[in-house]
Design brief:
- With about 110 residues, the protein is an alpha+beta fold.
- It has one domain: HIT-like (HIT family, subunit A, 2-Layer Sandwich), CATH 3.30.428.
- It is about 20% helix and about 20% strand.
- The chain has a 5-stranded antiparallel beta sheet with strand order 1-2-3-5-4, covered by helices on one side.
- Bound molecules: guanosine-5'-monophosphate and zinc ion.
- Zinc ion binds next to helix 1.
Amino acid sequence: MENCLFCKIIAGDIPSTKVYEDEKVYAFRDINPQAPTHILVIPKKHVSSLAMIDEMEDTDLAACLRAVRLIAQQEGLKNGYRVVSNCGPDACQSVPHLHFHILGGTQLADQMA
Ligand code: 5GP
Ligand code: ZN
């Protein structure tokens, strides 16, 4: 997708710190981390948000969630972690390419919003 920041990151046109990649998924460190571990997991095929997953193959969606578990293990998040996907303006989604935040490495806030 032209002019999509995360599509440009997948293409390597914008640099990122990669933590995981497979045929369907790319994952990299968030540029503005909100926890000691803050990683973004994204499908390689552009979909704008969870609201649009009917446009997506189930295998691509499942691959993202399986990657979350693998990355959490790889990052040593033995005591737990949080997975967040902001969807639309009320959730302050700022990049319109589906992404799952993995947040961990500390005791996270009890309140989620
Ligand atoms: P959202 O607000 O859409 O849920 O999350 C977008 C995330 O992308 C934010 O946490 C923001 O820090 C991160 N982000 C925005 N631009 C870049 C970038 O160029 N590189 C990386 N690594 N992260 C980015
Ligand atoms: Zn995109």
